[in-house]
Amino acid sequence: MQAINSSTPFYTTNSHSYVIGRPYQQAVHYTGKVKMVYDVSENSRLQIQYAIQNNRRQEYDRDKPLNDSLAALNKPEFLFDLTTQTVDAVYEFNRKGLEISGGVSVMYQSNYWQGRYFIPNFNAQNIGAFAIAEYNLKNVKLEAGLRYDVRFLEISRLIKGKVISPAYRYQNPSANIGATYKDLVPGLNIGLNAGLAWRPPTVSELYSNGLHHGAAAFEIGDTSFTAEKAYTGSAVVTYQANGIQLRVMGNYSYFDSYINLEPVLPPTLTIAGAFPTFKYRQGAASFTSVNVSLSVDATKQLSLFTRNALIWAYSHATNQYLIGAPAHRFQLGARYSFADRKWFEKPYVELVAAHTVRQYLVDEDADYSAPPPGYTLLNLEVGFTAHIRNTHIGITLAAANLLNTKYRDYLDRFRYYTDAMGRNVSLKLNIPFGDIK
């Protein structure tokens, strides 16, 4: 608790260095994708895509092993390797305002781990089939979708010298239906949507039982969890005319078996020290949110905008607001667009003030540290598209937290120990290789 109560990180050095020492994570991601598109007829086509991704993460603790021989090897305390392969086939048909698409999706996933136990080895397969229809009338758009998924999960654990391999099977439908009425008055659209969604519990939610180095926390799962099921409804109003763009969206989702990771007191004492403990819990919960965005063209070059998100996450199992839900956020910004030049186009500069309020809804005594104060960040972005030898290259220079404001974010687990990142300047280049000649 000394580290949590300290105003500065508990472990610091007096010298500055760019060398990343222990504790740290080393992550490598490899991805590949192949896509085929076949035009079956003038109104229909078939798409088939294969993708593979490998994620390899190594986590190094602050202290090396006490054994000199093991310490000299400098091995990670935890290694996690995850490979995911997917195959998707989609058939699309379009005729006289009717758009229909359907297909199948197959996923295979496997992982293994080494070092300190956190989650077991597992293999997972998912097979899904879906159909989506959209019908456009003069002023009305109707949408409907249906999907059915089956997920298989096999765990491999070594317990007292024996390999235990429990298997799970989850299956459920998902559905969605919606309607949009366009141009109720010129530029005004209204949409309504209702849906049924679900997801199976993850391996972490079922079997976590150890130190999560990346979050500096001890996490505990529960093998009795069932699949999450959600019933959703939303309404959206949009208006676009006379230099004004307005979007107001309200959403309500009810979960009969929501899974949430919550702090558990006191901390867990391990050989590596004491760590905050978090346990996955399941119960009925609801999420209510309102999102409002407004943009006004003050002049041909200058636009003023605001984006706001409010959310209330409530646990019906405990009759309290959910721990770990986002706080309300508000943004106010301005964007100035300059005239195009011979060798570049769409130059702009954008300044945004983003305010996050303090998360005042949760029980402060149920966490290791009370929610931090609200904060306001100033973000600056400059960008344009350059023409270089018949290639269009997007160039963006951004400065997040321009004023280097000191703050801590409620959703950041490291807020227990240290402030969030200060000023961060980044340069982004977007080069479409297909255009290079």
Compact overview of the structure:
The chain has 437 residues and is mainly β. It has 2 domains: 18-325, Beta Barrel (Maltoporin, Chain A); 336-437, no CATH class.
Task: Please provide a written account of the structure.
With 437 residues, this protein is mainly beta. The protein folds into two domains: 18-325, Beta Barrel (Maltoporin, Chain A), CATH 2.40.170; 336-437, no CATH class. Helix content is 3%, strand content 64%. The chain has three helices and 21 strands. The chain has helices spanning 2-5, 68-73, 203-207; strands at residues 24-41, 44-60, 78-95, 98-115, 121-136, 140-159, 162-164, 167-181, 188-199, 209-212, 217-220, 228-241, 244-270, 273-297, 302-315, 320-321, 329-337, 344-356, 375-388, 391-400, 424-430. The chain has a 21-stranded mixed sheet that branches. A hairpin with a 6-residue loop joins strand 8 and strand 9. The chain is globular, with a radius of gyration of 26 Å. The model has no long low-confidence stretch (mean pLDDT 91).
